[in-house]
Amino acid sequence: MKVFDRNLVALDVKVHFVDEGAGSPVLFLHGFPDCGDMWSGIISRLRGRFRCVAPDLPGHGQSLAGDDFDLSLENRSRFIDALLEDLGIQAPINLIVHDHGGPYGLAWAVRHPEKVKRIVITNTIFFSDYRWHFWAKIWRTPVLGELSLALLNWPLFHREMRRGSRQLTTEQIRGVYARIDRKLKRMCLRLYRATDPRVFIAWEGPLRDLVAHIPTMVLWGDHDPFIPKSFAERFGAQQVYHFPEAGHWLPVESAEEVAERLLKFLE
Q1: How many CB atoms lie within 10 A of CB 234?
Q2: C-alpha to C-alpha distance for 262 and 254, rounded to whole angstroms
Q3: What residues does each domain of the chain span?
Q4: pLDDT, tens digit (0-9, with 9 covering 90-100), for 117-155
Q5: HSE-up of 80 (CA within 13 Å, CB side)?
Q6: 123 Rama class: left (phi>0) / alpha (psi -120 to 50) / beta
């Protein structure tokens, strides 16, 4: 895969990203604890027809961000602004989000509806009545969050990832575990503590209006212990597809099936 690094000076972020293919741009935004590599199984199937861009979000993978990086929804969307400007992407984009990539990408889309061609949502949060899962509650708690990450080990991580997605292979889980470093642990605590679902109140209405006017598809892994499958219908998307046997990491577990849906939807 073709990977690059750029300095987004205005945000004091060094971003690492995949940029492959040519054609209508597709922006892939991952969640925690992943990086842009999580989309590799899909990008390999789309790069022949689209320009596929998959950044490591700030503090994830090989992207660097200082502890003062503002994690408000407004500033997360500015990160997308800065990345697209740096890459010279001016045409409306196809936006694909997962997990914490949702707050980044959907906030950006609400701010720039004219820059969005299509939206694809997979297992993400953007609702004010969302209730944090067990681990998120721990990470949001001072001291307890730090202690839990200090004690994190392979058996525990493997168990929880497999609980979130039964079809993930041990090799896939090891790949994610290998990237967990001090930087990512710091970002984990900052990210979960900065994301209060109540902030979505002001964004829910504008997002519904956006989805009503822009082609939107939801792909949802139902075996997700972190986000209820009932959320899939709440975005108001024109197309909603459930994957009963897949879990939270649907784009990794079911890359071939997801890519097939994307090819039909994006063309």
Answers
A1: 15
A2: 12
A3: 3-130+197-266
A4: 999 999 999 999 999 999 999 999 999 999 999 999 999
A5: 32
A6: left
Q: Which residues contact 159 (CB under 8 A, 6 or more apart)?
A: none
Burial (CB < 10 A; 0-12, 13-18, 19+), residue 128, is middle
Query: Amino acid identity, residue 143?
Result: V
Residue 71 DSSP symbol: -
- CA geometry: angle 145, 127, 36, nearest 5 deg: 65
User: Is the distance from CB of 45 to CB of 52 less than 8 angstroms?
Assistant: no
> What is the pTM for the complete model shown?
0.97
CA distance 54 to 105: 12
**What value, to the nearest 5°, has the Cα angle with vertex 175 and ends 50 and 151?**
135
| Rounded CA separation 211/225 (Å) | 26
Instruction: Name the CATH superfamily for 3-130+197-266.
Output: Alpha/Beta hydrolase fold, catalytic domain (3.40.50.1820)
The residue type at 44: S
CB 53 within 8 A of CB 27: yes
Cβ 15 vs Cβ 43: under 8 Å? no
H or E, element range at 174: helix 170-177
Q: Read off φ and ψ for residue 106, nearest 5 degrees.
A: -70, -35
